[in-house]
Amino acid sequence: MGIFVNPDNSAFQRALNSRIYVDKTGLLEEMNSVLDTEQCCICNSRPRRFGKSITANMMTAYYSCGCDSIKLFEGTKISKSEQFLEHLNRYDVIHLDVQWCSMDAGSAEGTVSYIIEKVLEELRIEFSQVQLLEQTTLSGALAQITQETGHKFVIIIDEWDALIRDEASNVRVQEEYIDFLRGLFKGTEPTKFLHLAFLTGILPIKKVRTQSALNNFEEFTMLEPDMLSAYIGFTEEEVQDLCKEYQKDFNEVKRWYDGYLLGDCHVYNPKAVVSIMTRGVFRSYWSQTGTYESILPLISMDFDGLRTAIIQMLSGTSVEVNVNTFQNDMVSFKNKDDVITLLIHLGYLAYDWKKKAAYIPNEEIRQEFLAATQEQKWNEFIRFQQDSKALLEATLDMDNETVAKEIEKIHTQFASSIQYNDENSLSSVLTIAYLSAMQYYFMPIREMPTGRGFADYVFLPKPEYRGDMPALLVELKWNNKAETALQQIKDKKYVQAVSDYTGKILLVAIAYDKKSKEHDCIIEEFRK
Question: DSSP class of residue 23?
Answer without folding.
Answer: -
